[in-house]
Design a protein that fits this description.
The chain is an alpha/beta fold and 366 residues long. The protein is built from twelve helices and ten strands. The protein is globular. This is Alpha/beta hydrolase fold.
């Protein structure tokens, strides 16, 4: 189903209320399959969960806290109120961990399978669900298509999954700018808008953004747009953000992202879909050349105004899965939303989260 009219705003499921919850974090360290230390954050409310585990997977250059911005009700709150056992994964792209050079292949082969196993072991659940966003979505879908996360029976994939369709300016940056920048920098870092960088090229890029982006007074917000997409801004609509999120949360949530990732994404955008950058055991070279090795029901969501990955990305992947298994999967393109405001927009608890809750609770076999 594609939301394209006022009826796209789904009511909160019957019996679910979202009060101001008191929650407790339990940090669970685990090792990726290549030995890298990562962690999960199990967020619990006052009452024991009545439903199974849900794993939330963030994108590149942020942390699991991206799902807990200062809005009225977060997705974590909504899931806990609905009875789910909520687990937030900090994989190797997380700004909550020491920065490293990483690729989607490494996350797909080493991080997400280990995270899923850890949740299953800790909870005793046979099957779990996942909500995955952006590069957490691409890398997790790589794991799923390679048959590495078979315990996951429902996946809500946000913004992009197997097809990588970006605006023309983003494509030009990936093709022409990335080869130049990677000679001098190991990372791009939106926090250069808050903390003066040491590298001359980083200072030059920051000055360029300051001169060319006039959409707001938050330089980190502008640096995010320059780093990840095309637009003013690229990852959200300013109208959808409250002041606390825009002025206080964004400047401290975004950090370093590996140039190795951008090299891989340039290759994927050129091909139009995900391909491997490293040849790691158990991963295909091309994710469209073999049937997906997953029986999960997949719900594809996208903001209609996303200027990082165009909604066409999700439309194409949904069509691919639907051809192989008609009627099983779902697609929702949400008007008036962009990329990350799906999760930290001030009205996301009204416009987006009830949809996610409904899809997580939907029958797996249709």
């Amino acid at each position: 189903m594609v939301g394209s009219s006022p009826e796209w705003r789904f009511p909160t499921p019957p019996g679910v209320t979202v009060p101001h919850l008191r929650t407790t974090d339990h940090v669970v360290p685990f090792q990726a399959d290549d030995g890298r230390p990562l962690n999960l954050v199990n967020v619990r409310g006052d009452r024991p969960p009545s439903r199974g585990p849900v794993l939330l997977v963030h994108g590149a250059g942020v942390s699991a806290e991206i799902f807990r911005a200062p809005i009225r009700t977060t997705l974590v709150d909504a899931l806990i109120a609905a009875g789910y056992d909520v687990w937030l994964e900090n994989w190797r792209a997380s700004t909550a961990l020491p920065p490293c050079e990483w690729t989607l292949d490494q996350a797909a082969r080493h991080d997400h399978p280990a995270a899923v196993r850890t949740v299953v072991t800790r909870t005793g659940a046979d099957r779990i669900k996942a909500v995955i966003h952006c590069q957490g979505s691409t890398s997790f879908m790589m794991s799923a298509c390679a048959g590495l996360v078979g315990q996951v029976d429902t996946i809500v994939a946000s913004a992009v999954s197997l097809h990588t369709v970006v605006p023309a300016w983003s494509r030009a940056k990936l093709r022409w700018a990335v080869p130049v920048v990677r000679r001098f920098l190991e990372y791009l870092d939106p926090s250069w808008g808050r903390v003066r960088p040491d590298e001359p090229l980083a200072r030059l890029l920051t000055a360029l953004v300051r001169l060319t982006h006039h959409e707001c007074d938050n330089l980190v917000c502008k640096m995010v747009s320059f780093t990840y997409g095309s637009g003013f801004p690229a990852l959200w609509r300013h109208e959808n953000l409250n002041a606390a999120t825009h002025d206080e949360f964004i400047p401290y949530e975004f950090g370093k992202v590996s140039m190795a990732f951008f090299r891989q994404m340039a290759r994927c955008v050129e091909r139009g879909h995900l391909v491997s950058y490293e040849r790691l055991p158990g991963l295909p070279e091309d994710y469209l050349r073999q049937p997906p090795r997953t029986d999960a029901r997949i719900v594809f969501i996208a903001g209609e105004r996303n200027r990082c990955f165009l909604p066409e990305s999700q439309i194409r992947t949904h069509a691919l899965f639907s051809r192989r298994d008609p009627g099983r999967h779902a697609l929702h393109v949400l008007p008036d939303y962009g990329h990350l405001d799906l999760f930290f927009g001030q009205d996301a608890d009204r416009d987006v989260f009830p949809l996610i809750l409904r899809e997580l609770a939907a029958p797996i076999h249709v």
